[in-house]
């Protein structure tokens, strides 16, 4: 737990908190980007270069942009009249806490199951690529199929009907 | 002597760092390299702006700047002083924090890409295993700054420009990445140092640059198209089309903040030219074996400046695309072609040495180009242009 960890932790948590408490939706989107960046820096600090850069490329480069596009194309960035928090905030918080508890429990349990490693293994991109295309090729292909299906679905939803007069 | 000249900056850095106490040395080494990058590329930015204004002037049959200094060569200095002394205007309706953060984050992110570019033998700031991925991660982050600039100005031209810019950058990022993946497949590494090393070999005095292979040539052309679009340069300069959007996403910026956007645009151009040079034009390696005595950094920077000249030339030559043409071109021609090109790289790799692979791979590229070009043109009615003159 070195100072770098604490700086990143504070940055990420502040970004995440700002994302749910700020009034302007676009500000929220920008704040959540800060949280994404903090997470990416965490991965880099743990020597996971590939995961860290992929996080920046996908979450900051694509997901954040998608979020702001969605905000701008739907209803503008003003706060709705019903107030900042939805009425079911308590249920939402309970579900979030439950998910967090399950994940935390799983992570803590896994430390006993896995063999204790004295040093972090040095993993380079080459090994990740080999693992993805040899051992984990089936999950990779299934994800690819899912994404292709999503893409085709999006195109069909956006496409004009042939008979439609426009 | 030759190797001293080649390594002169590396030796100089070691000498300066050696003068300092041991505790500071690693920090000072990094700091020195960063300062060099931050000093050299803005200087090149000034040179390229002048080159662009003079060159475009020539192409458009006018003189270009010729009042400040002999032949106007001090124009960038005058521009710099002007932008520093101008008033910094923030519109009343603007979101002042985001308005301020947008140019700052943009410049900071654009400079990050240089950390992994090999600018000469042993002249890479950070030797990274996933250098190419790092570069693209940084390149993708600039989109958010563009959006921030356009949205925070609260001006419809700014917002329209930002939306156009972001849509264009997202669309052309895919071919930019996919055209680079071919090089990664051929070298088996994401490290830019390794990619240059593979290209730094000679057969009969000719280099093994990737642009001199059929798939590499196709990749390079696609990369150049995508990079031009990614940097919002003409003919893909819709986001800042002066005739439609005033200046696009930085309409509401003045003074030094405007200069920061301008700097970021040109530094981004230099950076993406550097990446193209590294991936396809052999980085710092010499174009002929007998020219290897020339220092490596001279080759890198001359290749980058040559790419800049080509970009200026393109700007002076081509008209601006329309939005639908831009998107159709990206999604219906460039991306399918890059995907096909990946197959071509695989064929090249598995056919092994010999003449056969040259013929097969060239045939794939040419046939793909002809078929896809014809298919794209089929539905359009292309006939001799007819004119109707006013009576």
Poorly predicted segments of chain B: none
> Main interface pair?
A-B, 22 and 26 residues
Content-based structural category of chain A: mainly alpha
Helix/strand-derived category of chain B reads mainly alpha
Structure description:
Chain A is mainly α and about 170 residues long. Chain A has two domains: about 1-80, Up-down Bundle (Four Helix Bundle (Hemerythrin (Met), subunit A)); about 120-165. Helices cover about 75% and strands about 0% of the residues of chain A. Chain A is built from six helices and no strands. Chain A has helices at about 5-20, 25-45, 50-75, 90-115, 125-135, 135-160. In chain A, α1 (about 5-20) packs antiparallel against α2 and α2 (about 25-45) runs antiparallel to α3 (about 50-75). The longest helix of chain A is centred in the middle third of the chain and has 26 residues, at about 50-75. Chain A is globular. The mean pLDDT of chain A is about 80. Chain B is an all-alpha fold and about 400 residues long. Chain B has one domain (about 85-375). In chain B, about 65% of the residues lie in helices and about 0% in strands. Chain B is built from 14 helices and two strands, in the order ααααααααββαααααα. In chain B, a hairpin with a 2-residue loop joins β1 (about 200-205) and β2 (about 205). In chain B, α5 (about 95-110) packs parallel to α11 (about 255-280), α9 (about 215-230) runs antiparallel to α11 (about 255-280) and α11 crosses α12 (about 295-315). Chain B is globular and about 65 Å long. The interface between A and B is medium-sized, with 22 and 26 residues.
Keywords:
heterodimer; A: 166 residues; mainly alpha; Four Helix Bundle (Hemerythrin (Met), subunit A); 6 helices; 73% helix; B: 391 residues; 14 helices; 67% helix
